[in-house]
Amino acid sequence: MAEFWNPYLTPSDGQRRLLGAGAVAAVLLLWSGLAASGLVSPTRLPAPWDVAGALSYLAWNEGESLLLMATAWSVGRLVVAGILVVSIGIPLGIVMGASPRVNAALSPLIDPFRSAPVVALLPILVMWLGIGEAMKIAFLFLGAVVYLVPMVRDAIQAVPQNHWIGARDLGATPWECIHKAVVPMAMPRIADAVIVAFSVMWTYITVAEYVNAKVGLGQLIQNARRFSAWDQVFAGIIVIIVLALATYQLMLLAKRKLYPWETQQ
Amino acid sequence: MNAAAAAVTATAASAATPAVSVVLKDIVQEYPKPEGGVTRVVGGVSLAFERPGINVLLGPSGCGKSTILHMMGGVRPIGTRTPTSGSVLIDSRECHDVHDDAVMVFQRYANRPDLTVFDNVAFPFRLKLWRKRVPEAEWRSRVAETIEVVGLADKKNLRPAQLSGGQNQRVALARALVLRPRILLMDEPFGALDAQTRTEMQQLLVRLYEATPCLVVFVTHDVTEALALGDRVIVLSAQPAKVADDFAIHAPRPRSASWQRSTEAVKLEERILDQLHKAPGSGQVRVTV
Fold this sequence. Notes:
Number of strands of chain B: 10
CATH topology of chain A: MetI-like fold
CATH architecture of the largest domain in chain B: 3-Layer(aba) Sandwich
Structural class of chain A: mainly alpha
Largest sheet of chain B: 6 strands, mixed
Strand content of chain A: under 5%
CATH class of the largest domain in chain B: Alpha Beta
Number of domains of chain B: 2
CATH architecture of chain A: Orthogonal Bundle
Largest sheet of chain A: none
Number of strands of chain A: 0
Strand content of chain B: 15-25%
Structural class of chain B: alpha/beta
Oligomer: heterodimer
Shape of chain B: globular
Distance between the termini of chain A: 34 Å
């Protein structure tokens, strides 16, 4: 037990994968058991094989792939919103982190939205922007940017002051101190903020596509729900989880490639 | 030092920096206490540095010697008037802000973990101020030379994480020297290093200084270090800092371990410790045996 209850003793990669896969398999088994026993009606819990069937139906049926179309549209919206989040949120966060005065002015406008019901803003966005793409992009943008900006600001403020002082002493202008000494040091944490922003957008994609989407993963789920096709609802949710996980892992990999020095400090 | 490095040092010596004078007049520094009132950190210090030399500011930890050094570099703490009264004159001009006659070397070297040794030493030339003054071909050769002089030629493509603490401090030293400052301000630069590395770095500093004399002001709380390096040793009392003693050491450098045990050195050490014991207060000095 001394090895079991030891937070500093990490298991080997093989052991970790085995435990993870085992847990997923156990849940699948329990799920299959429940579905096969007939204890829970299929209208409440579709069987895993029905979900698999729905997945394959969505993936390819009568010469077209509903899933591919839906994924392409959802990813497209996410990417457009993501570009906006990054290109507006990062500069804003840097400026707030670099100037406590700007931060004092803007943080009351941004920080509270981290705990605000962003979903409740959807009707307002519909009222302002209509029911087209602009509204969906704006919703994703808002949902993610309120997380990104404070994280970028905190990343800047977490850089040890000696980097700023050192640059200042060498004759850097105030702005050079920020963008040539402080920002490069904050980049790994800024990358973390971007990763979080994309995760948040994946959780909001269904809500963004709730209103009048012609195509998209959220719309696919919404549509299936309307026809009580629960196997398709489950399939859609699984696809979103898988895509979100893949995005996360890819971005983490990219971050480690870009900033290998972060862990060596 | 190998022959190539010796040749480099010789060329560097020919480019000796022009002399500079730094005068501190009645410096008083007070910081507001969080609970109200003020803490007097520096209690009226007047000093003049008129010619090249290694000047050691020696005092117990926390006595305000770093505060004085920062004033000479013009790096001021934010939100406080520095100095509270008195003035710092560089070549008779009052110094209010960072100026490019002086470069500082800190104990916490600010090396960039994402840049190689070469790029770290070349960092100042990413700044407008130095890019305008020094053409690229020249700074590139200067950086390469300086890296060689501090003994990191074979490590110029490595990153800080691949270097030891002493090597990182060499990078920081090179980054300061590459600008050929007239004033080199060193704030306990070797304080965090182990004893052996510290001695090596002291010898390196002496070599570099002999090759290119400039005005060095070196802050330390290590009596042994002060005796090994100083042309002049200024002993500061515990907070608020005042000049308790100020004397010259004429023994030639590098000063060997046997000099450190000589009657002259032992007497100086006793003299310093006496001065520090006379002034009551907290803070510690270090004597390496």
